[in-house]
Design a protein that fits this description.
Structural class: mainly beta
Strand order of the largest sheet: 2-1-11-10-7-8
Shape: globular
Radius of gyration: 13 Å
Largest sheet: 6 strands, antiparallel
Distance between the termini: 13 Å
Number of helices: 0
């Protein structure tokens, strides 16, 4: 049996600077994040790229920078593609913007 969680076993806890927090289940791969209307997680901050990042399910969950102008950060470190673990915090290199926490039951 694989150690890779099935799609739907993970979610993102989103904290916006001016709104209450919310959660979104990761329901496909790639799971696109950005301000564009075609993303699975649409963020309303004009400083975030239309498609800023993607979460991929390969041999686990990964976050991949898809062209965020100010970079993608995982736990405060700039990344291009990095594995995700429960509790990891994703940010966009912007003061006062979204903070996303990755959660998984695996």
């Amino acid at each position: 049996m694989s150690d890779v969680p099935i799609i739907g076993d993970a979610l993102l806890e989103i904290v916006a600077p001016d709104k209450p927090s919310r959660s979104v289940r990761i329901n496909q791969s790639p799971f696109l994040i950005g301000r564009g209307s075609g993303n699975q997680l649409q963020l309303s901050d004009g400083r975030i790229s239309r498609t800023a990042a993607a979460i991929l399910i390969e041999d686990g969950y990964y976050i991949e920078d898809r062209g965020q102008r100010d970079g993608m950060f995982l736990g405060g470190k700039k990344i291009i593609k990095q594995p995700l673990h429960d509790g990891d915090i994703i940010t966009f290199g912007l003061d006062g913007s979204y903070q996303i926490t990755f959660r998984t039951s695996a």
